TrEMBL record:
Keywords: Acyltransferase, Transferase
UniProt-recorded name of the protein: 1-acyl-sn-glycerol-3-phosphate acyltransferase
SMART domains associated with the record: PlsC
Coiled-coil regions listed: none
Record-annotated membrane-spanning stretches: none
Domain of life assignment: Bacteria
Domain Phospholipid/glycerol acyltransferase: from-to ranges: 34-144
Recorded GO MF terms: acyltransferase activity
Organism: Paenibacillus marchantiophytorum
Classification via SUPFAM superfamilies: Glycerol-3-phosphate (1)-acyltransferase
Length: 194
């Protein structure tokens, strides 16, 4: 319930203040395990990633956020779960894989944090998808979150990562590069038409 209310509020905010345009929502499976992999430039990226979709999106969030009064309980109730700063614990990975095996959707930013450090790290998205058998959907977030300037979110076609199912470090690097390459391609292709 709280997730639906929050999604409606963010949908209103993104539509009115950032003229949100969402493309390719039909590329996101309506059920089953999905990893949404997007580029990351702002603290607003996580809510933007899930706002246009009907399904709930789960996210990893810095453990410190869960200690903040009011915020901690809210983000827990909207599907976020904690990850320790400086590295992802086995418990966090286990929970993420279980969420996917249970048929949920997870939002991940393969670049890591906005500063390209922390979060799931570079190979995390590919690793989670390959361990769980989840569908990977690349997502390009285009825009700067400037008031009354258009923000565009593009959900690409699901990627076939079966060639990297060996799970070696090299496989994970190649799978991650395939994901990032498609995110960059979507970003470039749709930035021209902004």
């Amino acid at each position: 319930m709280l997730y639906r209310i929050g999604r409606a509020l963010f949908r209103f905010m993104f539509t009115v203040f950032f003229r949100l345009r969402a493309i390719g929502m039909d590329n996101v499976p309506s059920d089953g395990a999905v990893v949404l992999c997007g580029n990351h430039t702002s603290l607003l990226d996580p809510p933007l990633l899930g706002t246009p979709l009907k399904r709930m999106v789960h996210f990893m969030a810095k453990a410190e956020l869960f200690d903040i009064p009011v915020l901690g309980p809210i983000i827990s109730r909207v599907g976020a779960f904690p990850v320790k700063r400086g590295g992802v614990s086995r418990d966090s990975i286990r929970l993420a894989v279980q969420l996917l095996r249970d048929g949920n959707m997870l939002g991940v930013f393969p670049e890591g944090s906005r500063n390209n450090a922390g979060g799931m790290g570079k190979k995390g998205a590919a690793s989670l998808a390959l361990k769980s058998g989840a569908t990977v959907v690349p997502v390009a977030i285009i825009g700067t979150y400037s008031i009354f300037r258009r923000m565009t979110i593009v959900y690409g076609k699901p990627l076939d990562l079966s060639a990297y199912a060996g799970g070696s470090s090299e496989d994970l690097e190649l799978a991650t590069e395939a994901i990032m390459k498609e995110i960059r391609r979507l970003h470039t292709a749709y930035s021209k038409g902004k």
